[in-house]
Amino acid sequence: MPLYVVLTSTNTDPDRFALVVNEIFASTNFSNTEAKATYHFVKESCPVRGRMLRDLSNGVSMFVTLAFTLSRFLNSDMLYLHARVTLCDKQVGRPCQPACSGKNPLRRKSPWDARAGTQMEPSSGKWIVFGPLLISESRASGSRSSAGAWIAIFLLIVTGWMLE
């Protein structure tokens, strides 16, 4: 079943900033630091091959929309989604949109990190945790809503506290 996620930032200037999703993964643990078993959808700001249902428009605007199939993996019916996001300052002179390699999307060549001559710290950005999400199999017989039902639609609001 597809899960649609919309991340947006408020209280920031859309002409100056763009929202960048650095990482999104599902785990069975609420704490992202204690999550041992994870299933990544976005890693190093690039989609993990074969796990996204639509293109990721990352670092383009204050909105990032994701669609992926959420199913019983990690042997659990209850999962948490963890997202690490940052705001990119468009006025710094570096592109905000990550350049993901077509051959290996997990290895990105990030112009907005490389031009600065420094690497982003792995812990940079703010973590947002959503859940628990309960995964249940639909028993309805072929109704339109069950065939392509959304497990959940949620909006994560990233506010001005990211600029601290």
Folded structure, characterized:
The chain crosses the membrane at residues 147-163. Keywords: Disulfide bond, Membrane, Signal, Transmembrane, Transmembrane helix. InterPro entries: ZP-C, ZP-C_dom, ZP_dom. It holds the Pfam family Zona_pellucida. Residues 1-107 form the ZP domain. With 164 residues, this protein is mainly beta. The protein has one domain: Immunoglobulin-like (Sandwich), CATH 2.60.40. It contains two helices and ten strands. It has helices spanning 111-114, 144-147, and strands at 2-9, 17-27, 38-43, 46-47, 63-69, 78-89, 99-100, 108-109, 126-134, 153-158. The chain has a five-stranded antiparallel β-sheet with strand order 4-3-2-6-9, with no helix packed on it. A three-stranded mixed β-sheet has the order 5-1-10, with no helix packed on it. It has a two-stranded antiparallel ribbon with strand order 7-8. The longest helix is centred in the last third of the chain and has 4 residues, at 111-114. It starts with a strand and ends in a 6-residue tail after the last strand. The model is unreliable at 103-123 and 139-164 (pLDDT under 50).
